[in-house]
Each structure stands twice: as structure tokens, then as C-alpha cells.
Design brief:
41% of the residues lie in helices and 14% in strands. By secondary structure, the chain is α+β, with helices and mostly antiparallel strands. The protein has one domain: BirA Bifunctional Protein, domain 2, CATH 3.30.930.
């Protein structure tokens, strides 16, 4: 990880780049404008990651961030994997950055994700999809006499805040081995656990205080984030 200059906001040319990419999502156009992507998106994204990452470590010292741009760090690749997709557009027309805690794949650990398009931005906090082994542990936790009520409390605390939602109920039925009328049946149907904050309006994206706005949203998502960290720490910690 390398530290970058303090974040001063994304330039308007970054928003324009994504707007034009949305209209011209093809390799020839991207290659002609790759310099704009590097200058107006990647460079300020590195500053954003570094500045926000330092603040997020006040929530959890173990939170990881990385300013590298090759896809292994916090700045996700702009290139889409189209091998198994009907949508053959080769590029994401928005920026994705991720901050995570834990070993292994960053997308399989609790974290915070900030995204930004040409028109708005947003925050996710938690774990979008549980890896299969963790899904089984999650269900045990939902059923647990301490972890289950703690999860209900965390979900209630986050979702009670204006503009915040918690998801996601994925399965239609309560999984086998659990009472269909379980008092936390809805939570047993989840295949991931995350919160979504209110939309960040376009003018904020170009200002230095974007970092403060994102940080404040992340703080409000902390109850779910901390519950997930305890889940991953293992049943011995319950």
C-alpha cells in the first residue's frame, strides 16, 4: 500500500468520462480515451482510497485498503468479465472501490464498497454473497441464542436510520434443518448480509468532503459490519 495526496474531489472530467463511456462502451473508444481514465479517474481514486482508508481504520484497525490500480487493491478493475454474460459491454461505466477486513479474497470478507457513476454515488457495507462454507455458519449464527438476537439488533439499528436498507433475502424457503416458523425465518433466507446507504448526489462527488460523507455512512453501517466480523472470527468467539 502506498499513500497518495489528500483527496480534493473527483474532477468533473471523471464524471464526463463515465458518461461518454456509457454511450461508447467499446474497446476502440476506451483505448483512445485511456489517458483520461488514468488521469481523471484513477489518480483521484487513489487519493480517495488513501484518505478514506485512514479514516475507516478508526472504525476497525484491521480494515485493509490498497491504492494499487491493477485490480488487486481497493480500486476494482474497469474491465467486465463477459465470458458468461449476455451483456457483452467490455467496461463498467462506473468506479468501484472496496475496503475489506480478513484474509483471502477481499470480496469474501466484510467490508465497505463505494461506487460512483456519472450521476451519483453510493455505499454498500457488509458482505454481498456468503461463500458456501460461511453461509452454513451464518445460519447457525442466526439460530444461536446470542448471535441471533445480536443480528436482529444490528439490522434494526441500521435500517431504522433514514435512507438505509438491509439485505438480502434470497431464498424462498427457510433452509432444511430449521423450523419453517423460526422466529428469525426471514434472516435464514439471506445469502448475504449488507446495508445500503442513501444515494450521494452528483455535486458532492466533486468535493473534498465526499470522503466525510462516505465515512459517516460507513459509521452508520458499523453494527452489521462488526457482527459479520464476529461471525467470521468463529464460533469460539460467540
Amino acid at each position: 500500500m502506498t499513500e497518495s495526496e489528500p483527496f480534493e474531489g473527483f474532477p468533473k472530467k471523471a464524471l464526463l468520462f463515465f458518461k461518454e463511456l456509457g454511450r461508447n462502451n467499446e474497446r476502440e473508444w476506451f483505448n483512445e480515451h485511456k489517458g483520461d481514465y488514468q488521469e481523471y479517474v484513477l489518480k483521484p481514486a487513489q487519493s480517495f482510497v488513501s484518505t478514506l482508508g485512514r479514516k475507516l481504520r478508526t472504525i476497525s484497525e484491521g480494515l485493509e485498503y490498497d491504492t494499487s490500480t491493477g485490480g488487486r487493491g481497493s480500486i476494482m478493475r474497469i474491465y467486465r468479465d463477459i465470458r458468461f454474460s449476455k451483456d457483452k459491454r467490455p467496461y463498467y461505466d462506473y468506479l468501484r472501490t472496496i475496503f475489506w477486513e480478513g484474509i483471502g479474497k477481499k470480496t469474501e470478507n466484510p467490508g465497505f464498497m463505494f461506487w460512483m457513476s456519472s450521476e451519483e454515488g453510493g455505499i454498500y457495507g457488509g458482505l454481498h454473497v456468503f461463500p458456501k462454507p460461511l453461509l452454513a455458519t451464518y445460519r447457525e449464527a442466526v439460530d444461536h441464542e446470542i448471535m441471533g438476537p445480536a443480528l436482529e439488533k444490528a439490522v434494526s439499528k441500521v435500517s431504522s436510520k433514514e435512507g438505509y436498507t438491509v439485505g438480502k433475502e434470497h431464498f424462498k424457503k427457510v433452509p432444511g434443518g430449521y423450523d419453517p416458523d423460526h422466529k428469525r425465518a426471514a434472516l435464514l433466507k439471506y445469502n448475504g448480509l449488507y446495508s445500503i446507504g442513501p444515494s450521494i448526489q452528483k455535486p458532492v462527488l466533486t468535493r473534498p468532503d465526499l470522503v466525510d460523507e462516505v465515512f459517516e455512512q460507513c459509521k452508520k453501517m458499523t453494527p452489521i459490519y462488526k457482527w459479520l466480523n464476529k461471525l467470521i472470527a468463529g464460533k469460539a468467539q460467540w
